[in-house]
Amino acid sequence: MSELLCMKGITKRYGNGVLANEDASFSLREGEIHAIAGENGAGKSTLMKILFGAEQPTEGTISLRGKPVKISSPRVATELGIGMVYQHFMLVDELPVYLNVFLGVEKRKGLLLDKQAMIDATRALCEKYDMPVDPTALCGDLPVGLRQKVEILKVLAREAKIIILDEPTAVLTPQETEQLFHQLRILRDNKHTIVIITHKLKEMKELCDRITIMRQGKTVGVVDVCDVDEQKLSELMVGSTVRLKVEKAPVRAGEVVAEMKKVTVPGSGKPKLDSVSFVARAGEILCLAGVEGNGQQQAIECLTGQIAYSGSVQVLGEEILGKSIRKIRDLGMAHIPEDRMTMGTDQRASLHENLISVDFDRNTRLGFLKSKHLKARSEKQLKDFLVKGERQTPISMLSGGNMQKVVVARELSQQPRLVIANQPTRGVDVGAIAFIHEKLVELRDQGCGIILVSADMSEVFSLADRIIVFHEGKIAAEITDVENTTEQQLGRYMLGVERMEAAQ
Ligand SMILES: Nc1ncnc2c1ncn2[C@@H]1O[C@H](COP(=O)(O)OP(=O)(O)O)[C@@H](O)[C@H]1O
Ligand SMILES: [Mg+2]
User: What's the CA-to-centroid distance between 361 and ligand 1, angstroms?
Assistant: First the structure.
């Protein structure tokens, strides 16, 4: 098969300084289904956004059929026959399917929209690719699996030859995934070339011809699917990460600070959490590891009172079902949420206001704010946590890393007995990462329990005293001897190649 597309030396530095791609390369053969695999944050989405013209590379070149091209926008990509289905769909709920499909490229009869022609064309595409979508249905009424089909139809209506799908199966049930694969195979048989981002090994083996593996922004390998087994693939994906050095005394685990007993959270199809039980102890860093979407997020949401569940969840000795987040915090729990922009901070407020927001009412006397005390405390927190900003600075002016330091400062200064840290260093600069790690270890040594969720292997290995691995809503392994466990072994549990017999 001839080479259709080639990306070379692609480097992408985002405005916040994050190096998302570093000298990455990628090539496509006409008519293949090509997977891009790699851990979270490996740079997969960025590389594909560059191919689709949605991001511009800092360095690097792209050529199509041997000719250099500059893909300066998605419009240019569309003209070149490249289409992309993003992870988050971009449909207009209020419009019917056929109008979404032809949005921006409407068929017209004179000045008027040619409704019938668009309905017919949509129907013809559905039939050709075996997609059971009603062209006249309202997009807002469709389940997620069908909304995804509409996104694919949009790309097809623009006559894309190269179709990129960013983690399309993350939102699908197993049956819907089967259907999607069936449709992708029909597309391949019709001379389309498909790129699919996924970290599910089974899917790669089942569907794809070749796999490009990315790690830390770089391309670390391209393999023919028939030449590798799942074991080899998981090793390529995980690699051997550098273990960051964090000074840590031996663990002295104390009383139980959180416990889940037979907790189930339903999902569409398979449950998101399937009868999960574990305990977290004082003085210990327990890491909930797993590839995104395997239940660890739901476990955190249960512990912080954000979602409904069946079974029992206890935090600091109390059953939390029905308790408000405020009440759970008052028990002595601090929470560093993953999404600091929407959950962790008030973007309209200053650093000071963000720092005092959690214990505002504990610092009032007779209705008056103890403002002097609070001001001094904020000053100290900003200084202690090396935040680059003044008390009055609006938090929206800060870089992501500094914003995260504000959230961490606020949460860790509450003298918590339990800290839930969800991806606490994602997108944070190296200096701040080390600092946040030190703070977490310091609290642990003072007898606080820490539950850490992290998709970053080196973070898991440098911090965890014990690791619970989630796979498909269940606990696949519990690792107590972290020091003598390899990344490869953890990777096999995370990717479902192996599970520990005694785990559940
Ligand atoms: N718009 C953005 N601005 C700043 N950093 C970003 C942006 N998008 C992604 N990143 C960062 O770039 C790195 C690679 O991200 P991404 O390409 O989304 O990885 P993947 O798709 O493999 O999970 C991550 O560290 C991520 O936080
Ligand atoms: Mg991605």
Answer: 37
The whole-angstrom separation of Cα 80 and Cα 89 is: 22
Question: Is the Cα dihedral 241, 246, 247, 248 positive or negative?
Answer: negative
**Together in a domain, 263 and 234:** no
Dihedral through CA 261, CA 39, CA 231, CA 493, nearest 10? -10
Spatial neighbors of 413 by CB under 8 A, at least 6 apart, are 377, 381
Whether residue 33 is found in the same domain as residue 124: yes
- pLDDT tens for each residue of 382-441: 888 778 788 888 888 877 778 888 888 888 888 899 999 998 887 666 667 777 888 899
- Six token digits for residue 181: 């694969």
Tell me the pLDDT band of 458, cut-offs 50, 70 and 90.
confident
Q: 198 forms bridges with which residues in the sheet?
A: none
Residue 249 lies in a domain: no
For 202, the token pair is 């089974």
44, 216 Cβ separation under 8 angstroms: no
CA angle 338, 343, 345 (to 5 degrees): 105
pLDDT of residue 490 exceeding 70: yes
pLDDT in tens, 230-282: 778 877 877 655 555 677 888 888 999 999 999 999 987 789 999 999 999 99
The size of the chain, in residues, is: 504
* Pair 166, 83: CB distance under 8 Å: no
Q: Which atom of ligand 1 is found nearest the CA of 427?
A: 27
- Check if 42 has its Cβ closer than 6 Å to any atom of ligand 1: yes
Q: Which domain holds residue 345?
A: 256-503
- Name the CA dihedral angle for 248, 252, 254, 259, rounded to a multiple of 10 degrees: 50
Q: How far is the CA of 138 from the centre of ligand 1 (A)?
A: 33
DSSP 252: -
Residue 342 pLDDT greater than 90, yes or no: no
15 and 46 in a single domain? The answer is yes
SS (H, E, C) 268-311: CCCCCEEEEEEEEECCCEEEEECCCCCCHHHHHHHHCCCCCCEE
Nearest protein CA to atom 16 of ligand 1, as residue: 43
